[in-house]
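Troubleshooting entry. The earlier prediction with pyridoxal-5'-phosphate gave an output that would not parse, so I re-checked the input for stray whitespace and re-submitted. Clean input:
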Amino acid sequence: MTDPRYAPLLDLAAAHAADYIEGLPDMPVFPGVAARAGLSAFDEALPEVGIDPRYVIDRLHGAGSPATVANAGGRYYGFVIGGALPVTVAANWLAGAWDQVVTSSVNSPAGTYIEDVACRWLLDFLDLPRESAVGLTTGATVASFTALAAARSALLARAGWDVEADGLYGAPEIKVVVSDDVHATIEKDLAMLGLGRNRVTRVPVDSEGRMRADALPPLDALTLVCTQCGNVNSGSIDPIGAIVREARKVGAWVHVDGAVGLWALALDDLAETTEGIVLADSWVTDGHKGLNTPYDCGIVIVKEAAALHRAMGISAAYLPEAMGEPKDRVPESSRRARGVEVWAAMASLGRQGLIDMFNRFRIHARAFAAGLEDIGFEVLNDVMLNQVVATIGTPEELKAIRAHVEASGECWFGPTHWLGRDAIRIAISSWRTTEADVDRSLAAIRAAKEAVIG
Ligand SMILES: *Cc1c(COP(=O)(O)O)cnc(C)c1O
């Protein structure tokens, strides 16, 4: 490429990116004090006269790269972050050059078409109802917001109320049921939707954090039940089959927050655990977690496409086609072509490659749990997905161990609270994590334990 406005910059960005990626195994997983202090290089007044674009890119690499969290590497286990498959980073660059706005096929035939293919592949891979409408959002928070808006629309429409036109004042009341261990983002979604964080019935959970189907309140045709496939701590999956069957009897809506674990639907050995999930009304997951696309990418799936289109359509016009346009499936109008990365991940791995990747997360998680027990930790969950919750010593000792590991730069994981106890949470969700990464991380944890407890 010879266009002098682009070529030197793209070459420079590629060189810096390659340098960054090469350096990932050796950089501290969480940036140290000096690297974070280096961010002050950006702390200057807005230039009156613009600076050379090459210097802009150099500055990003020079002061920005060292202060990043190395979750693109294989030893970051915090939250549930996921890596980005190399092909998805490359696809992201190309899509960046395209600069498409995926509002509708009028704005971007390529962006819309490729996204629609990726959405159909998702339904196929997860074996969810093919008539569902699928939308791509920034993340699972907005994906669930979108699905719950569709639920609100459907439940109220069946009761003769048009919530999009008339709002919630004076509407029949929707009863919302969540588990005691509901993810905080669902509560935020309920707040944003006018359904209220506190206006919910909380169902007790078992020792794995699963909603107890035998403790459900009475359901009716105006009930919205929020379930989880992949508890953010334990990775456990609610007994969604049993819950859906109760809900079906009365016409309640069942939503599945599968940000962490919807992929379990594709894993044969978990078929018993995931039984009945296919019968729910809406599902979400994250591309940027398990699927290993770059940030940001959430996925919302709603069986009753018309309900999603009513909730998300820009105009009040009813949209008969199954999928509709991207703008009729998500809150945003203008947005980037994140479907390109979903497509790239799925195309490059294929069905078996995807299954293998999800199973690798689980194998590493089990190895992690065994290694932690060997060091003296107590593992607090049944490690069946990609999440490990463990504890050792007093809360102060545990905190000191975490700080010690963070300072070593060898790996990073966060604190959590589980079954009333302070604990650590390890999430394995990067394609890049290897057995050697797990061993190296366990060695760092062992050294920290010995330094703190002996
Ligand atoms: C991460 C997560 C979310 C929120 O997803 P974002 O992509 O951060 O918006 C929701 N539910 C669960 C269980 C999660 O783990």
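This one parsed fine. Residues 216 and 280 are 16 Å apart (CA to CA).
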